[in-house]
# Entry
Amino acid sequence: MIAQDLMDTAHQLVGGGKGLLAMDESTPTCDERFAGTGIPQTVEARRAWRELLVTTPRLGDSISGAILYDETIRQQKKDGTPFVKVLAEAGIIPGIKVDTGEEDLAGYPGEKITEGLDGLRERLRDYFQMGARFAKWRAVVSPAEGLPSRGCIEANAHGLARYAALCQEAGLVPIVEPEVLMAGEHTMERCREVTEETLRSVFAQLSAQRVLLEGMILKPNMVLPGLRCPKQEGVDEVAAATVKCLRRVVPAAVPGIAFLSGGQPAELASARLNAINIISMSATARLPWALVFSFARAIQQPALEIWRGRESCVALAQDTLAHRARCNRAALHGEYTTAMEPA
# Structure
């Protein structure tokens, strides 16, 4: 029955016309964002921010799952209600980030390897008992000049596959996130080449580790030019390049693709997601997977800038968060327009 349970959960996450809220920032990352908006970098401030997120009214209308961090999955509302229970009551499936971050890859200057496999089997069992039903592991690949190396791609692909196999053994749907970074001067075509090469390696390793493709979700980057690239292609060009890349390398057995935002501005991420789904709905595309979102900053950041740690701004921040979630849900149906944005 575990295979059927995995497939059912994966379908619930991507098959209902909703997306995922990534609220799995590590403590250092969360504190860094707080510092940028003048919020105290304390346990209580992080708890209060996360309570704001999970208690946003009608969040479950647009969000199917929420990715939590280790600190977050153990936290509660002020009244003592665990966040996991709050999410479940809103119809949102709780998930958990389980990698422990990137470290320098020995022998490969400028490249990273994701750590966290040691003790992962036991941690996954604990998270399942806490109520998590899916997990996430992020690996990063840099398309800088002369990079990435084949060794870096293969090492990270192997780590993603081992993580995914352990997740499924524990009854958790693995979200597999190989991210080609946006930073740099690389062209959109270079991003497509690196993304395609990385995904080919990832799916080869997933097959080697006997991962059930029907019981996993892919979380890739969109095919984008680097942030410092002089040529910045339009929304439709990005969408076409992204779909072309994915059709070449992602097996039809995978139930869904949940795009990461990777630091894109919120409205631009929604517009690109919308254009991708317009292609997917065309009669000639016939794409086999659901195309959804798994955004962090592209949903959270506008609300964070309003909240800034002030209790008086909670309601307005929640309205802003819910608005961004609704915009991205509309994008899944090809219905997002800039007219939806406030003046």
